[in-house]
Amino acid sequence: MYLILAGGLVVVILLLATAFSGGASDDLQRRLARVGPQEGRLRVKKTITQGSLRSTKDSGIPLLDYVIKALPNPAKLRARLARTGKKISLGEYVLINALVIVVTAVGFLKLAGWAPLVAVLVAIMVGLGLPHMVVGFIGARRIKKFLANFPEAIDTMCRGLRAGLPVGESITAVGREMPDPVGIEFHRISDSVRLGKSVEDAMWEVSTRLDTPEFRFLIIAMAIQKETGGNLAETMGNLADLIRKRRQLRLKIKAMSSEAKASAMIIGSLPFIMFTLMMFVSPDYVKVLLHDPRGKMMLGVAGCWMGMGWAIMGKMIRFEI
Known about the structure:
Layout: H1 2-20, H2 26-35, H3 38-54, H4 62-69, H5 74-82, H6 90-111, H7 116-162, H8 167-177, H9 182-194, H10 199-210, H11 213-228, H12 232-256, H13 258-281, H14 283-291, H15 293-316
């Protein structure tokens, strides 16, 4: 039992660190230092700071606003929520977390009859982890859809530039002709330019919401061309080809690692399948693990080892392109 509680505390700490960790990663900073100017990185930080200063109130509840201000890095959570494309405020997200925690805790206490401490720990894990996973899934699906149409958007800009249109008008054409979410994001860039921002500043502001290296490649290529000169249409055409090749490589890696993923899913699900079958075939034999302290300790150790195995296999089949 103590081992299970300790594992629950570790998972809660990891979830809190994942949800509220601040700043860009070291790997991202190294990449920006290699391929982008220092000015671009400062613009990203400046945009995040300005976004946090603008959003002084996330709800109409003073207590909830005070809780949001006490969070370590609310700007990152706002950017994560904006990445989904849904109009979800940070106050609504915090309320959803609290509601899931309360409902899960009451369910475990009243329906399952768990001990209060265990029920609260598991409820905190579910309340923080489930909304975080849902928001991440929706955001990743939207980014995937964006990247699928992004090379065509760059080609549209290239055709506009070759026809003699300025960069701002080419971006406006992309926002008008391309489907969502590419059209929405480029339309926001166009609106920001109309309000007086430069094209580069408007694109850096959008990049904090999208958080994709492909979009940053476009900004950096435009910034370098602005400083050094040259054929911007040709540069962007080469960038579109590069992004297509990256997508092809990503799909090839996905196909090559599908066998390992299938093996991991089968091996990981076998213990649960066998446990369910044994519950139907010989429930008295299995209930020893659920009621005896030694059985609970064995289940805790087995859960820890399976979690480590899943993490290792996931790391082995995850490639960075």
